[in-house]
Amino acid sequence: DTGVSQDPRHKITKRGQNVTFRCDPISEHNRLYWYRQTLGQGPEFLTYFQNEAQLEKSRLLSDRFSAERPKGSFSTLEIQRTEQGDSAMYLCASSLLDEQFFGPGTRLTVL
Amino acid sequence: SQQGEEDPQALSIQEGENATMNCSYKTSINNLQWYRQNSGRGLVHLILIRSNEREKHSGRLRVTLDTSKKSSSLLITASRAADTASYFCASYLDSNYQLIWGAGTKLIIKP
User: Fold this and answer.
1) pLDDT digits (tens, 9 = 90+) for A31-53
2) What does DSSP say about strands A101-102 and A31-37: parallel, antiparallel, or unpaired?
3) Can you tell me the mean pLDDT for B15-28?
4) For chain B: N or C, fewer Cβ within 10 A?
5) Angle at the Cα of B83 (from A40 to B31), degrees rounded to 5?
6) How do A10-13 and A106-110 pair as beta strands?
7) Which of B29, B14, B49, B33 is nearest to B87 (CA)?
């Protein structure tokens, strides 16, 4: 399967713990995006990479969130000191042009 | 923030009937995209319509765009059980890379 993959698919953590998610985009895609989605809502943009450069970051993203794409290939999203409000589906997408291809997501539950 | 708002929020029809969903957006756009999300396949891109296009077809899908009214519609003809999903419109905020989504229309196809 050469689509976008995300790991892990599910994560349960206790409040205050740090979590890290990984996204492997489609190999030739230079654009990579992270979104957060809660039940009944559309995805909410978090951040965007073009190659290894993080070009955009949502103003809603708190300092507890950080993302990297060190070699312009896979990306990681870290959430520090998790809060119950961080519980959501975290989606990664990649693209060459405007059409985005999504991974299956990582479902985070913060207890 | 939400760029697009879908209408209706939920739609239930009989298999074989046509389904129409509407999307309104707030700011000027270069293009507008429709995506489908179900539990089996996640978020999948359906169709992209550019601001200089008024109508576009793809299989059983027909999308229209009215930039004067800042609205778009998605028509699914001859609906099938497999069309049961949530449908989202999304557009880039101005010329940057933030893809902004509506809350979606939940479509249920009854057998």
Assistant:
1) 999 999 998 899 999 999 999 99
2) unpaired
3) 93
4) C
5) 70
6) parallel
7) B33
